[in-house]
Amino acid sequence: MSKQDRFYGIAYLVRKTSLSLTDIGKLKPGKFWKLLEEVAYQESVVEYNTARMVATIMASIANTIPSKSGRDHKTGEFMAIDFPKRAEAPGKNLESLAAKAGIKMPQIKQED
């Protein structure tokens, strides 16, 4: 990571948390990046919830307008974003860990 990326990360944590520059400076690099990812994830969850509330209001308003089809509008029709997902660390899923240990995973049979 460049110095600029680290600077933006520090500024982001200072703005979004109650941590001081001294507290952030005491963090080890691994903990720093994990904390940065978690704060960013939590902020994206808040943004999603806000978008969901707005979409619910929009669906309610749309449902007050009579339509020829008579169908109800759902909140999902007005959602532009999906629920955020946590970043998965590479090599941490079950299949990759099993392969690394030399364990063959059983295959799931697909029924027709």
Explain the layout of strands and helices.
Layout: H1 3-16, H2 21-26, H3 29-64, H4 94-101
Please give a quick description of this structure.
It is flat, with a radius of gyration of 22 Å. The mean pLDDT is 84. The chain is 57% helix and 0% strand.
Question: How would you explain this protein's 3D organization?
Answer:
This protein is 57% helix and 0% strand. With 112 residues, the chain is mainly alpha-helical. It has one domain.
Provide key terms for this protein.
single chain; 112 residues; 4 helices
Rounded radius of gyration (Å): 22 Å
Oligomeric state = single chain
Question: Given the C-alpha coordinates, what overall shape results?
Answer: flat
The number of helices is 4
